[in-house]
Task: structure prediction
Amino acid sequence: MRSRMIFFSPKHVKKSWRQIHAQSNVKVEAVEDSQEKNSDQSPKLDNSLDILKNHVLNELIQTERAYVRELFTVLLGYRSEMDNPQMFDLMPPLLRNKKDVLFGNMAEIYEFHNNIFMSRLEDCSDAPERVGPCFLERKDDFQMYAKYCQNKPRSELIWRKYSECAFFQECQRKLKHRLGLDSYLLKPVQRITKYQLLLKELLKYSKEGEGTTKLKEALDSMLELLKSVNDSMHQTAINGYVGNINELGKMVLQGSFNVWLGHRKGATKMKDFARFKPMQRHLFLYEKAVMFCKRRFESGEGADRYPSYSFKHCLKMEDVGITEHVKGDNRKFEIRYSEKEEIYIVQAPNVDVKMLWLKEIRKILVQQKELMTAKTQQDQALDQDQLFPQQQNAELCKSSPFCVCEETLFNATEAGAEVEQAGALIKVREAAVLAQAEASSAAWNGMLPSAEGAAAMLNIHTIIPL
Result:
């Protein structure tokens, strides 16, 4: 079959060009319309972001006021009533002296928010860019929440023991509270968690340059505070550690792992570890040590809310080495302990947790190496400083006719009585030189020394020839 070939005539080409040109004009007009539409929507988008940001800021301020009111109500309606003699009959005797444990440092938290922080937040109502600096300026004050959270398990223990007593029921009735005291004792924990959520929302609806740098720093500081509070609560749950745990330095990380224990000199091979049942261990990484603990599972109401750990062993970081990859499982890494030739195969819950721990362990080991290098250099510099004056003194001693060198004095000290003899020799030599000088001076002036002086000079020359 003969195929048909299409040849473009000049007329056809001209027609096609007109069609293409017309289509391109349509596309250009469509793009221009789209750009105009986007430019029209841009101010609307900015306005909607501002509305959302102001809504979050208003929520931050309003919830802060409500939080301060609730703290005041609890302190006045419960804590102060524990000192009210008219309420003593409703209180068990053992509860009367438990006020500080039950409420912790809630009064301190209230004073901070009522007298300082709430007014600072209210000043930000018309200036959202000030929120970041507001949190950063009071960053250290928020550490009081760590103290409150550390006390929380003890507080809950008292509440569970006495929650049904008539005193708490009467206080709740007077305050017309729908919820019991335990719900209000949880408010500080909830509030410190709420801050980071609100800061995230503010950051989400803020444009670059509207205080976002400080807002990010404030968010990071609150997240770091939450981590610190969480870590401190785990640390206070450690039982059985004999030493001062504060001497281990700052806690860097903590978490649960599967652990296998072996020895470098033993016959156990890595593949054999898989046949052994792992130990469930909670690891605490400090600046100066890594601690292994076993979690205790206790029974009773609220027992699962707060952890409890039994201390097992502690490895000094200066004696620790790591192997980052263990064959057969990318979640495992190896901790070597030189003091006891021990190997700990550690399995993380996932690869991300493993990489985080390896990163922090490496950082600690590098810092330790740098400190040891700096100390060695400092010691060497001190040795050089001490050696240099000794060399100078030795050279001076050799060039001076009146000096007994340090080596001679050192040997005389070892010999005991020779020290005094060395001192006498110095004095005799000085006297001889002075006598010789006087004789020379007398001869120059035409004078001769007396017979006694000549005899003395003779005796001196006999003892130590000049």
Observations:
- The chain has three domains: 46-236, 245-373, 406-463.
- Confidence is low (pLDDT under 50) at residues 1-18, 26-32, 401-416, 439-466.
- The domain at 46-236 is CATH 1.20.900.10 (Dbl Homology Domain; Chain A).
